[in-house]
Amino acid sequence: MKDNFSVGIVGGGLSGVEAAWQLTRKKIPVTLYEMRPGKTTPAHRSGGLAELVCSNSFKSVELNSPHGLLKAELSLLNSLCLSLAEKARVPAGSALAVDPLVFSQAVEDHLSQEPLVTIRREEAQSLQALQQIHPYLILATGPLTAGAIADELQELTQGDGLYFYDAIAPVIEKESLDLSQVFFASRYGKSGADYLNCPLSRQAYTSFIEALLGAEKVPFKEYEQAKHFEGCLPIEVMAARGIETLAHGPLKPVGLERDGVRPYAVVQLRQENLAGTLYNLVGCQTRMTYGEQKRVFRMLPGLRQAEFARLGSMHRNSYLNAPRYLSETLELKPLPGVFVAGQLTGVEGYVESMATGLWAALQVAAQIQGMRPPQSDKRFMLGGLLRYLSEASPDRFQPMNANFGLLEPIPIQAKLKKQEKRKLWAQAALAYLQSRPWVS
To answer: How remote is the C-alpha of 138 from its chain's centroid?
Structure first.
């Protein structure tokens, strides 16, 4: 018998748990299907809800940054994941970084205690079969969607599935670092000395680049193409674009002086857990073999004896051709009643994923309650991101992060610096969002 009230959510990642929480705020019961720990993926390490698999950072909180604005919007919309991330926060300068285990456990505890949420630890085999139980579904299986659900999506989209490769950076045990060779600092001194910095001379930098280029990499399978997402390139792919690419990218020394001297390049390490015993190699996501990772990264100052709590890896990320197969409400056009959330929609990033989970829940709740659904609009960051998903060219569609290019420009009379202009832009976006009748 069809349950006329319970919404089925497939996937217990950031977007799935955010959607579940938003629906319970509307007094709508939810059944959350999560296959882990019974069945796992190449990237996950636990069975916890909202496990972070790549980085522990939700990026900047500054309002003049796109992710800072998106977080401010999610705060207005009462995001569960954002509020729990603040409670699991670790030092990371102007970024919101969390202890992944503490964060995941907090999400698990919160939803497990919510009477309107039923968590079923099983793999969903068919969306169309679940529709016989739930009148509305939210598909939040993430970029590692596989098995029967992936096959069903391939059939529904006539094989028009897309993918790219995502890379994970290594994590190092702090006690194995030579702290006399590194220094604590945040870029430009923002928010305290929250990062460990490995300073490189020009010679050390050149040797590091040569080692990256010469290292053995994990090969792609014969039927796979080397298609990367530009926002998360393996460090060796960036190095191959030119010897100075990294020095002007993730290893840039700007704002990181030591005793008044700027190094030629800097590799930063960001705290990974609340205890401060683990550090993540920022910008060093990689597909080098495990042995080569140890050899190459131990070339860095202070890392000669480094012990790796987690080595880097790569995995294939799937996403839908959103302009072709998703409506503005994130409803799957070939299968009405099924809404898609998270990276499967074609957004890229943790905050973007939870934002689409929140949006899908608002759309479903509006339909159930017979109310006018929220409308996306380029005057706020989430709205601009949603418009990109529906308006981008389906022939050239690529995953998208939050960025100010998604927003409708606002008239500014005076000539202002970029950051000042962005702050005004962000303030206008928040004011517009607050004026919407569905924001409470």
So the answer is: 19
Nearest to 255 by CA among 183, 198, 190, 181: 190
Residues 276 and 368 in one domain: no
Give the integer Cα–Cα distance in Å for 191 and 188. 9
The answer to the question of residue 2 being in a domain is: no
Q: Pull the structure tokens for residue 12.
A: 């217990």
Q: Which of 348, 129, 340, 309 is nearest to 229 (CA)?
A: 348
CATH classification of the domain holding 149? 3.50.50.60
Query: Given pLDDT bands bounded at 50, 70 and 90, which one contains residue 224?
Result: very low
Pairing type for strands 137-139 and 338-340 reads parallel
Question: What is the total count of domains within the chain?
Answer: 2
| pLDDT tens for each residue of 125-161 | 899 999 999 999 999 998 888 788 888 988 998 877 7
Rounded Cα distance, 89 and 100, in Å:
9
CATH code where residue 259 lies: 2.40.30.260
Note the pTM of the prediction, 2 decimals.
0.77
Q: What is the CA radius of gyration of the chain?
A: 22
Q: Do 57 and 148 have their domain in common?
A: yes
Query: Is the same domain home to 18 and 156?
Result: yes
Range of the domain at 66: 7-161+320-434
Cβ atoms of 11 and 75 closer than 8 Å: no
Strand pairing of 89-90 and 278-281?
A: unpaired
Q: Which of 78, 66, 6 is nearest to 438 (CA)?
A: 78
Tell me: do 100 and 177 sit in the same domain: no
Residue 3, pLDDT above cutoff 60: no
